[in-house]
């Protein structure tokens, strides 16, 4: 599988991944999990 991806697109994806990982590391993931449990 070969995906055409420009350098700019790759950097956007990498930046989004790093942002999500850092938010999760700071505990935002736990807050979201608690909110989802509350909704159920």
Topology, please?
Blueprint: H1 7-25, H2 28-39
Determine Rg (CA atoms, Å).
15 Å
How many structural domains? Answer: 1
Shape: elongated
Helix content estimate = over 70%
Q: What is the terminal-to-terminal distance?
A: 38 Å
Q: Please mark out the parts with pLDDT under 50 across 5 or more consecutive residues, or reply none.
A: none
| Number of E-state strands | 0
Structural category is: mainly alpha
Number of helices: 2
Beta-strand proportion:
under 5%
| Biggest pleated-sheet summary | none
List the secondary-structure elements in sequence, H or E: HH
Mean residue pLDDT? 77
Task: Describe this entry's structure for a reader.
The chain has one domain. It has about 40 residues and is mainly α. The protein is built from two helices and no strands. The model has no long low-confidence stretch (mean pLDDT about 75). This is Tat (Twin-arginine translocation) pathway signal sequence. Pfam families: TAT_signal. InterPro entries: TAT_signal (IPR006311), TAT_signal_bac_arc (IPR019546).
